[in-house]
Amino acid sequence: MKPPVGRVLCRSAAATAQSPPFLSAPRSRRRTTTTTTILTSFAQRRHPLSTTTRHHLIADDAAQSALDMAPKAPKFELKTPKGTKDWEGKDMVIRDKIFSTITDVFKRHGGVTIDTPVFELKEILSGKYGEDSKLIYDLADQGGELTSLRYDLTVPFARFLAMNKDIQNIKRYHIAKVYRRDQPAMTKGRMREFYQCDFDIAGIYDPMLPDAEVIRVIDEVFEGLGWNGEYTIKLNHRKILDGIFQVCGVPEDKIRTISSAVDKLDKLPWAEVRKEMTVDKGLAEDVADRIGEWVVLKGKRDLLEKLEQDEKLSTNESMKQGTADLRLLFEYLESFNAFERVSFDLSLARGLDYYTGLIYEVVTQGSAPEKSPVTAGEEGAATPKPKKKSKANSEDDDRSDDPTVGVGSVAAGGRYDNLVGMFSGKTQIPCVGISFGVDRIFSITSARMAKNKTAEQVRKNEVDVYVMAFGGNGFLKERMEVCAQLWSAGIKAEFLYKTKPRVPAQFKAAENNGVPFAIFLGEDEVANKQVKIKEMGLSKDHPEKEGILVSQQDFVVEIKLRLQRKKELDQVAVQAEGLKVVDGIKKGEEDGDAAAEAAPAPAS
């Protein structure tokens, strides 16, 4: 016997209220059964629907319409272009700390910031980067102008000075992205899109004074980052190199190309560099051998004296100018207390064409590759299996796992006295500067933090107080009012976006981000116009483990006092351990680690 129609309809309506039809019905029925059809059907049978059922049906129809209108998923692979990445979470926190540390040093030395377009006219960049010019990204003609993405921040700065003739001296800093079509090694900070932080001093001053201050800036940045002297500032002078090449017999038209070959001594043995000089670049073998006697040397004043005492080199005008500059520089660096980490290294050449005097780069442990290309290929050497490469794009594949690729130098720069004149004609504005490679600094910092197991100490944001509700109706308005008072006082605060939040969910949100303090609002606190302040993470036997009650009028002042006290105690604890911590970056953890003195350099 069939049941009455009314019962069937009522059960159907109840089921509809529990399970929305667009979720439970087959796909074929979802597209044909609409809210209007169902409502009309029920009306014809004179079986009224409940309000809840009507709301479900209307919501179902709206959701189905949204699904029908949604764009289709793309057919191509969703990814970032090669040599680029998205940044988020703790990585962003660490990188932002690097930015702020560097910026503070720049401002301390009187720096003012500028900004320039991300792309320049192609002729502005052409002929400034030597053999690296092939790495420039050229853009398609978009309206009568041939343009390229900027390769560094130095050439755009020189163009800026040439256009703004009223600026004859400036301490400028610039933090921005640059672009190079280099083979990427992402985990080692070798990317195609990356940040540079530049500090340059432009103007006519007495010799080597601006140069010495730039070296001091380098020292302050890496000490501020907590590297505790675990870096080396390699420096040389273009005129010293040119003097060596001239005395050894290098033809004038080959000096820049031979200089570029010498610059590879940080990652290749002398035999390979010599082969490039003689076989690839046509230099006489005896000339290459004479060069090899000098460019493998490094030291400080002892090497300077060796150059000055050599009978042939000491009579070369270029050499005399270079050694005089370095002797003066060393005196100034001692006055600045910035001489300790310096190494006078004759293998440093810097491949960019615009350098005219002092050149330098900063290397640290992790800069050098695990193996040189020759060592890695020697018979019997343990070489990891390379990743499979696309035949068409092998030069574009990531080389993060290649042991012959290191992070490279983490900062580099030098003096460029003629670059502005290339754009302005007769007007010359001498300049000297430094460029910090943020992504390489980040790569080494992250590796150290992983080794020291301090990465988990990095918080994703800087919230000081989490406002929580206990029981009642969720105390939404009260929580919002408390947050508003904290924000007005400059205190970083958050609360959970729920009208009636569960206690575990609130604690989890606070603990996941390491929020140091919580404010509790319960029925008793609200009734008595109080709040409870609790410092998170206290031991079980601590007298304030359960928090303290404070009036609503005084809680902002109390929070400020406790935040200041916690900051001071944290600093005392750090000093007691003999450490320097920058958001989890510990200074002095790697005892006995010597700074590496090898790495290819990014351009300034």
UniProtKB/TrEMBL annotation:
GO terms for biological process: histidyl-tRNA aminoacylation; mitochondrial translation. Residues 369-409 are annotated as: Disordered. The keyword Protein biosynthesis applies. Residues 83-384 form the Aminoacyl-transfer RNA synthetases class-II family profile domain. It catalyses: tRNA(His) + L-histidine + ATP = L-histidyl-tRNA(His) + AMP + diphosphate + H(+). Its EC number is 6.1.1.21. Belongs to the class-II aminoacyl-tRNA synthetase family. Catalyzes the aminoacylation of histidyl-tRNA in both the cytoplasm and the mitochondrion. This is Histidine--tRNA ligase, mitochondrial. It comes from Emericellopsis cladophorae. The lineage of its organism: Eukaryota, Fungi, Dikarya, Ascomycota, Pezizomycotina.
